[in-house]
Protein: (spotted green pufferfish) hypothetical protein
Organism: Tetraodon nigroviridis
Amino acid sequence: AMPSSAGPNSPGAALAEALENSVRLIDRHLQDDRCFPDLSELLGVPSHNMPSVSGVSDMDYPLQGPSLLSVPNLPELNAVRRVPLPPELVEQFSHMQCNCMMGVFPEICRAWLTIDNDIFMWNYEDGGDVAYFDGLIETILAVGLVKPKQGILQPHIHYLLVLATSVDVVILGLSFPKGHAGLNDSMSGGMQLLPDPLFSIPTDNTYILSITSTDLGRIFMAGKDGCLYEIAYQAEAGWLSQRCRKINHSKSSLSFLIPSVLQFSFSEDDPIVQIAIDNTRNTLFTRSEKGVLQVYDLGADGQGMSRVATMTQNSIVAAAGNIARTIDRSVFRPIVHISVIDRSESSDCHLLAVTHAGLTLDRQTNHIAPLVTSYLVLFLSIVSIPSSIGVMPPALATPFAPMVHSGPGSIAPITPVTASPEVIFSGKHNGICIYFARILGNIWDGSLAVEQNISRGNQTVSILESSVGLCELESVILELGGLREFLDKNSQISPSSLGAASFSSPANLQQRLLGFMRPDGANSQQVQQELQRKYHTKAQVYEKISLQGIQQLVHRSYQTLALWRLLCEHQFSLIMSELPKEFQEQIKAVGFKDVVIRGKELSGALITALINVYIKDNASVDAISNHLRDICPLLYSSDDSICSKANELLQSSKQIQNKVDKERTLRESLQLYQQISQHTDLPLVCFQYRQVRFYEGVLELCLTAADKKDPQRLGPHFYKNGEPEEDRVGQQAFQERLLCYKCITDTMQELVNQSKAAPQSPSVPKQPGPPVMTSDPNMLSNEEAAAHFEQMLSLAQRSQDELFHIAMYNWLIQADLTDKLLEVNSPYLEEHLMHMIKQDQNKVHNMDLLWRYYEKNRSFGKAAHVLARLADMQSTEISLKQRLEYIARAILSAKSSSSISAQASDGEFLHELEEKMDLVRIQVQIQETLIRQYSHHSSVKNAISQLDSELMDITKVTKTGHKSQHLALLCIFCPRGVMCDVDQCLLAQLYGEFADHFKLSECKLAIIHCGGHSDPILVQSLWQEIMEKGKCQRSGAGEK
């Protein structure tokens, strides 16, 4: 489908401008985020591998000081809402015998509670959707939530719930029927806890303290025996491996050779109490009860496992004491918590350790060498508030919850004379922009495809692959889907939440908003209030428009990403090979943001390429078309869906051999194309219809498109009004119609050319064997082309579109098919020819067509009048002999007309034509005589040309230099007292200007005879001149 053009003031142009403004906002926030200092810079680390300390000087507390604002009780956390436990769970505590635990799974928006051997889960947003599992016998000691490995389990299992008891570890499946298209889907959809365990493995008397997993689905457990365990699971059991097994990563694979008694005697257990995993660097950290930190490298792909470093608590305390020498070393122990600092938060700091006194220790690791204690950063995290308070790091916050309404911002200080107010967007507005920028930051400016070289046999082939992997795309789509859902669910942001109430401010804020405006009376105060209301209103409108633009940008970005993911799921490189060359170059050069806001043509080409892959595989496009409509309706509309189905039917018709079935399939495709004909690429569809010889489809589709593109019939109105230049709208509609008609006339021209093409002569084959096809098998023969042309011409005459008839008539005239034109039985042809004659466009040719049209339609009277006008017309295009022929035909037509309707006027007209015929014959005789006798004289050539260009007219009598002579001649032909008629005047003109001037005695005699003059003296003198002239000619011949 082709996008319709939109004017500068159209809704489409306004939307495009809003998107452009939103993109500029995102670019600005993205640039600010990219310039955000690293955590090591904020902590004042002087250089790489150098330690730093903060919190030991007054400058580390910017909001605490004698000259600054005192904030003695600055809150770190704020309780937004309290949700009580579900009532049915409270009563379960009365049955508790051994142990209970509680926790939350933010990934699925669920809280959990274990009471002895039972586990309960519910939605902590509203306290509903309670689920439980009571299939265990032993008390539950540890609980973990795991995202399963790809391709191992059934797709309906979205998460794994790992439960550890003193006897075994059981893995259950969690399912969300509504899926997880966005961050908040789990809140709205119900959760199903599958009753049958997926895996179960014995603990071998190991007390499990905690369970953690990586993003790739690996499950790690902390043992009370000080060992780090992993549960490895796979789809099916192998020859040497079980379907589910427990791996001890803390002991050597040869430890089984040492008796367990010796291991127990010489080792002291140090339970691992915490596991922290950095998925961005594939690093795993453990913390033991005695403060020992261990680091494991999971490999570049996240599937390996090797212990690279161990640091005891004493070594940590000693290192910290050497850095902060003025601080009591007792505050450095014990370490009560560790937390990873992923790559998005800092490129240098990797691990954060918190002591019991609230000190935090930042560490750096190295994946290549063992752990290097390059630097240790120490600062007081509870009391120390950096100067950048309120600035969020570039990392995304999970879960997406802290989007809370606040006022739309304040107005910059103004003065009504020199300064203009500047709208400062609210935190809500900027928060949405920042969050959007952080989601798409890595792909915002990048292209969708990159060129790669691969080897195929002995050749190197260049292909286009996606610049972003499918897993990363799915992660971005998941995050952006959450933002989209949030904006849609809180759509009151636009209309209602920007009301006056949201602009509430402290009482003294007016003075700060209006700057140095001094109130000097009631009038001044009233002006201030009016200005404040005015600027508040403008700020509301401005932010509302901006938020709407951002919401549109979020939707378009999400749908573009969904299309991108779909292409990756359908062999990206294959689809790229279906793109035209110009789009292949474009997709390598254009950034993602440009595709979102101005890449409709590129997106359409990508969708077309995807659908063409289906069509080439002879697969139905219904499923993929419906899927496209679901995931990207802004890029793939219902019209596009109809177009895809029509194209599928058109392409499938090429494979159908049965004539009836083929006709039915083509008719179905035509009906679909007609529904969207105003947006269809007519030349392309018509070309495909010509390939399958569906010429009536070309005609019907183009006529439908013309009507749909000009439903108000402004084009015909523009034509009938004389095509005024000031009617721009009518002119555009007129041109749109002509473009539709041109597809029909181009098809007819192709058929005409093919019908006249010379057939190929038989030739001797170049080599023995079966015949070689040298021409296009779909090429029409001359007879077939002529038959299809006649069919199209016949169907065209049935149309009620007058403007189409006019376009077709003009084409037939231009193609020199006037015989076909005269065969047209249409009420519009006569009117069109007369219109063309009035416009003086090729007047002679059009009048010639008009009398032929009248004659063919047996309007002999009209034909006679047109022929008479042609004979009298002053034009060098008509020779004297043609004028004679026109008069002769006019007489025949007039006689035919009088035989049909005997009217007196017809008789008079016939008599005039017969008299004019005599005069024209004399004019021909004069011309032939001049050509025969005096053609070598240059002065005679002008007379011959004048006789050709017009019939002699009475008006010429008074325009020549022989006026007195002509008047004398009129007295000869006109009896005294009788008014001279036109013919007599013409005779006088022929006599005086030509016959007498060039001494043509025979012609004079003929003129006198035609005029009925009976002067014997004049006749005798003319005969005497003829005889003397003949005698002179004979004597001259005898001398020779």
User: Anything to note?
Assistant: The domain at 659-757+778-826 is CATH 1.25.40 (Serine Threonine Protein Phosphatase 5, Tetratricopeptide repeat). The chain has 34 helices and 24 strands.
